[in-house]
């Protein structure tokens, strides 16, 4: 093996840092090529009132801590917000202070490593497709239930980010016009009915109204509704508390309604449900599956997608971000090689371009299966005239 190939191979084997920035916490880890987390750390997310600079400080502090212990290749950031098509800026984050924030360049200048930024749900979906519950499935929709709802779509094995990079913001689909006010500014968004915030909001309302069915929730928070958290309600549900179970069932029903809408739009083979709320498993997913089947358009006359819990749990976001950073680093290296090759072979490139142009001018579209394929409609004779292809 040549020294160059050995050096490239060793470079590709170096771990990467993945950072998952949510509404309440920043989880980070060092991830190897197989998706294993070999080191990790965590911080609280700076509040929405804090400046974007403070979030950058948190990220830089994490990279410095993990980078001191590991020789890393790159950094991937999964951000809870709209990430632009160049995967460099966060256009808008409902739960953070980012507005048109050039996050990639700002962090890259500080950490002196290649940085990739993507939506946190895209990162989680990527991890599930590479290492988790969606391995081997070509059409997948991921729904992450955390502070809000994030999502991602894989169609024909390709992660789709949309024309402007902001696809998959399922949490802000309006499903109840005029409903609860959302932090995004609209009313009736899906995440106002099926997220971790909803679980806390509804539990607090029961306690504030001194509902007798919520006595165990009131005991757990010592009578102070402000102490109620999502994990607290989930733990009570796991212990069989009727009020907590009812709250999760309500969320599951709204989750199923949203999944049915997504099935009508994307027709996936698999829904992967992730995020902290999914930790309760079937206490949430069974009501969701029932509601999904009841709401699905064409029910009884069409195949149904399978609804499963994410295999990688809350770590999917950081694992996916790290792997996307590795992939982008490799892509840039390969692109540099390709540019070199094109510079060395400009004449051959012109010939290929001309040939491709000729082929495009001699094709027609024919429908096959669920898509449109292209096949030759005619071929050129040696004297320059055209003839139709013969059929056997």
Automatic annotation (TrEMBL):
Protein family (similarity comment): Belongs to the ROK (NagC/XylR) family.
Molecular function GO terms recorded: ATP binding; glucokinase activity
Name recorded for this polypeptide: Glucokinase
GO biological process: glycolytic process
Gene3D superfamilies (UniProt xref): 3.30.420.40
Species this chain originates from: Jiangella asiatica
Source taxonomy: Bacteria, Bacillati, Actinomycetota, Actinomycetes, Jiangellales
Region (Disordered): 350-392
CDD domains on file: ASKHA_NBD_ROK_SgGLK-like (cd24061)
E.C. code: 2.7.1.2
Residue ranges of the TM segments: none
EC category: transferase
């Amino acid at each position: 093996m040549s020294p160059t190939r050995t050096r490239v191979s060793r470079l590709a084997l170096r771990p990467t840092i993945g950072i998952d920035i949510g509404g309440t916490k920043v989880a980070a880890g060092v991830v190897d090529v197989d998706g294993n987390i070999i080191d990790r750390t965590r911080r609280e997310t700076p509040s929405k009132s804090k400046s974007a600079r403070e979030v950058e400080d948190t990220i830089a502090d994490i990279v410095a801590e993990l980078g001191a212990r590991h020789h890393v290749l790159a950094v991937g950031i999964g951000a809870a917000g709209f990430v632009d098509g160049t995967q460099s800026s966060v256009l808008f984050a409902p739960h953070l202070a980012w507005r048109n924030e050039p996050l990639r360049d700002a962090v890259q200048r500080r950490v002196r490593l290649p940085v990739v930024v993507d939506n946190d749900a895209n990162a989680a979906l990527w991890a599930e497709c590479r290492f988790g519950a969606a391995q081997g499935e070509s059409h997948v929709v991921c729904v992450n239930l955390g502070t809000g709802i994030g999502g991602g779509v894989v169609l024909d094995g390709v992660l789709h980010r949309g024309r402007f990079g902001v696809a998959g913001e399922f949490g802000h689909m309006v499903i109840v016009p005029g409903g609860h006010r959302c932090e995004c500014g609209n009313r009736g968004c899906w995440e106002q009915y099926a997220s971790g915030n909803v679980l806390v909001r509804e539990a607090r309302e029961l306690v504030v109204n001194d509902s007798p069915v919520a006595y165990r929730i009131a005991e757990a928070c010592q009578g102070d509704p402000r102490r109620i958290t999502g994990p607290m309600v989930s733990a009570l549900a796991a212990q069989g508390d009727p009020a907590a179970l009812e709250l999760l069932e309500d969320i599951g029903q709204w989750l199923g309604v949203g999944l049915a809408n997504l099935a009508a739009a994307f027709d996936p083979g698999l829904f992967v449900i992730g995020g902290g709320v999914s930790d309760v498993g079937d206490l949430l997913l069974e009501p969701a599956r029932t509601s999904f089947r009841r709401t699905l358009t064409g029910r009884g006359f069409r195949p149904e997608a399978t609804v499963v819990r994410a295999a990688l749990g809350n770590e999917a976001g950081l694992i996916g971000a790290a792997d996307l950073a590795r992939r982008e680093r490799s892509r840039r290296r390969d692109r540099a090689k390709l540019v070199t090759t094109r510079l060395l072979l400009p004449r051959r490139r012109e010939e290929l371009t001309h040939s491709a142009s000729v082929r495009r001018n001699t094709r027609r579209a024919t429908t096959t299966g669920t898509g449109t394929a292209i096949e030759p409609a005619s071929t050129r004779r040696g004297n320059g005239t055209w003839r139709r292809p013969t059929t056997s």
